[in-house]
Amino acid sequence: MNLTPNNISEFEKAKCEFEEEQNMPHEEVFARHEKSVAEEMQKFNSIVVAVQNEDEPGCQVCGNKRQVAVREIWDLVNLPRIKLVQCQSCAGQIKIYNLGKMSGLDNLKTCTFLEYTTRLPFQIDLLQTARRFAKTEESDDWFVLLGQSGSGKTHLCTAICGELIKQEKKVCYLRWAVELKHLKSLANTPEYDNEFYRIFKNDVIFIDDLFKCGNLFEKDKKIGLAMPTDADIRLAFELIDRAYAEKKILIISSERTKTDLFEIDEAIAGRLKQRAGQEYFLEIKKDKAKNYRHNDTKKRKDIDG
Ligand SMILES: [Zn+2]
Question: Which helix (H) or strand (E) holds 293?
């Protein structure tokens, strides 16, 4: 104990009490400790602290301290004392909250299955398939959602991640264009392996907008999607192959079609198709009516998909 003017008096008090107790019957000492333990416990447990972030779950049991004071018997001296234990009332919720924070997904609250708009028949089917995928807890299947831009792919994939987080799985969100740039900047440095380690210590990896490399224009008119470079393809293969080898759950969204994917790289497309199977290798056919950005931009403008 470091003695400062503030705690010298505390120390002196404890010392006096200790000396006093040497000459007291044990029952009396016990009763004295019991009383002070009860008071200290009451004091600690009644403190309410503000939550760190506004979306953090609040808890009336521990007053957001995530710990509660309990009484235990200190065997060595056979006296009651205080022990701080994790609050069981909010521990599960906090674990899930922290997994959500660590995933890097900012839209878990808004991008849920319940919030997914099922205006068109294909959306009803997709929602059912995504729910089914998220429900099978023991599976390490992949979920690949391709096609039409702005059709809510990111929303649905995020909702799946939210469900997997509730099953206490560790999720890592990678926005393809950002991660690609980041990994390329780390090439030939030790940080490159560290980044892979950071990604693959998770159970689930969500690659959003795979092979997004911008649009091709002709006289200011969009005529298609730019093709990924050989380096982009190598990196994608490295990520996908490692997920394959390590039996990670992979969730992929991409504006590319199945045909595009096979044209870009057969090995990548083959792996995705094999692990996602008939059931979860999905493509939303190109159709402007399926683009909520054209139809419903106001309501969904914060969701990218
Ligand atoms: Zn609590």
Answer: helix 292-295
